[in-house]
Fold:
Amino acid sequence: MAAELPVQLGGEPMRLLGPRALWWPARQALLIADLHLGKADVFRRAGIALPSGGTEDDLQRLQALVQQQACRELWILGDILHGPAHRAAWHRQWLSWREQHAALDVHVVRGNHDRQLPHAALQVQIHDDLRLGPFLLCHEPRQDAQAHVIAGHVHPQVALPALRRRFPAFWLRQAQTVLPAFSAFTAGVVPARQRGEQWIACVEDQLVPLPVR
Structure:
C-alpha cells in the first residue's frame, strides 16, 4: 500500500492520491469528483435521521490535500451539490472554507446534481465538459477519440473479500479514468471488471492496486 501512485494518463505524468483525488503536477491542480455538498441536509429534510458533520469532514479532508500538494487549482468534476442550494449549514461551511482558500482557483464541471449551481453563490468557475491539455474533463464517463477522459459520476467501488468490505476505487480504462466519489457519504457501484482495466482501491487513505486481468 502507498499514499500515492504515479501514473501516465494521456501521456501526462499524474498521481493517484489515497484520499480519492488525482494530482496533476504540471498544473499544480487537484482533481476530485462528486463532493455532494449538503447531501445529509437533503436527507434530513426528507425526514431521514442522519448525523451532522458530513460536509465539514469532507472539507477538512479536502483542506489537507490542498495544503499538502501546494495546490493552485481545484477541479471538481461534477456534483459539487447534491440538491437545491438551500442556505443550510453546509453552505456556511463551504463559504468559510472558500474564504480560507481565496487564492485557490476552484473550477466545477457541471454534473447531473448541479442544476442549481449558477444560483448557489459558491465562488467557483462553472464549466460544461471542458478540454484541458490532453484531457477531456467531464462528469459522466464517455469515449472521446481526441482526448483522455477524466470523469466521475459512477462512484466506482471494489469488493475486497479478505476485508469483507467495499472501497472507493480509481477505475482506469482505455483512454478513460473514472475517479472515486470524494464525499464519504456516498454509495457506489461495483462494475464488472473487464480484461486490461486497472483498479486501485482507496483503503483508509492508502492505495491498493488490484491485479490486472
